[in-house]
Amino acid sequence: MIAAATFDALLSPLGRRALADATALSPTDSTLLSCVGRLRKSYPADLASAAVETVILRAKAAVKFTRADRMFFTREALEVASGEVVSRYRAERFRRYETVADLGCGIGGDSIGLTAAGVKVMAVDRDAVRVRMTAANLDAYNAGPLASVQQSDLLTDPLPDTPAAFADPGRRADGKRFLSVHDYLPPPAELLKRLPPGHPVGFKLAPGVPLDELTAFGGEAEFISVGGELKECVLWLGELRTAERRATLLHDDPTQPLSLASDSRQAYLEPRPIAAYLYDPDPAVTRSGLTPLLAEQIDAAPVDSVVQLLTRDTHQPTPFTTAYRVDAVVQADEKRVVATLRSLDAGRVTPVNRGWPGELPPTRRWKLGGSGHRFVILTRELGKPVAVIGERV
User: Fold this and answer.
1) What pairing do the DSSP bridges indicate for beta strands 201-205 and 164-167?
2) pTM check: above 0.90
3) pLDDT tens digit string along 8-48?
4) Burial 52-87 (b: 16+ CB within 10 A, else e)
5) Which end of the chain has less Cβ packing within 10 Å, N or C?
6) Using an 8 Å Cβ cutoff, are 71 and 55 in contact?
């Protein structure tokens, strides 16, 4: 963990030179020690280490932030930070407010998203270094004039007086990750006690949060995926709530989300055998429990009472699933699978496990000589393990 004094040194003229020299070394995790050793010949040890670490983290952060090369991070804070696409999408709900509190601001990713939406931000964190990083990172986006940053404890110090808030409680401590909201730092329920009743708040939660824990809040649980990868859950409270559950799919443009939402539970749908097309819902849909709603919308049926795959006789395009045209459904046995693939002239295979309890052997030993490509979806059909062989459409 970088010390506050060392971070301040990084911002000095000497620190900027150290960062430039560290950048020229193109350090990686595997060359970190050797690069630090070279830099220590010209700079104090702590500054050399911080400069090399910063350059490495900036390279990692490029997938999340467009101005990562001017930002500052700690490893843990970068891992849990939302990328620009997600933070800017979330910020759209706060456009109606002139000022929003960013409670537990970390390295400032959410503050950056809020200011991009034209919202003034009052950012708070109890960690002195992260407060400094937030201020520096806001400056990297020329957002400093729209934000104020202060070091405060969310459970003991006065909270910013703003009409709405976004909170990102800590979900890690001593190397452990927390899923239960009761273990968060601070727990959302404790933070809510310090806010006016019905205060508009959005809580960033781990995507694996137990759903039954969210019921007591009476809010909206929104699960967000980016490019098919589930990123986070947001609990929306007060007037920020728009539904009971929502699945949101984001790609490159956060202003063009795809959402599926419901305020009611869908009726149970009877599973049926796999038909001509198989649909694998986006993880935001399955995690939010909205697969039955999607099934109703595309007139599909589940293939099993547990596995959340859908099927129908004809193809119905939908952005909320990955769809496969089914060539064959066979017993999940290696010999049967290989024989079927050879009959289809398959040469390349992509296995996909969706609720199947076992694994197929490495596909390289099958020695397929065909020219085509097939997916092998290992799953369950009406309670029995099967292998679905098909092409993505």
Assistant:
1) parallel
2) yes
3) 999 999 999 999 999 999 999 999 999 999 999 999 999 99
4) bbbbbbbbebeebbeebeebbbbebbbebbbbbbbb
5) N
6) no
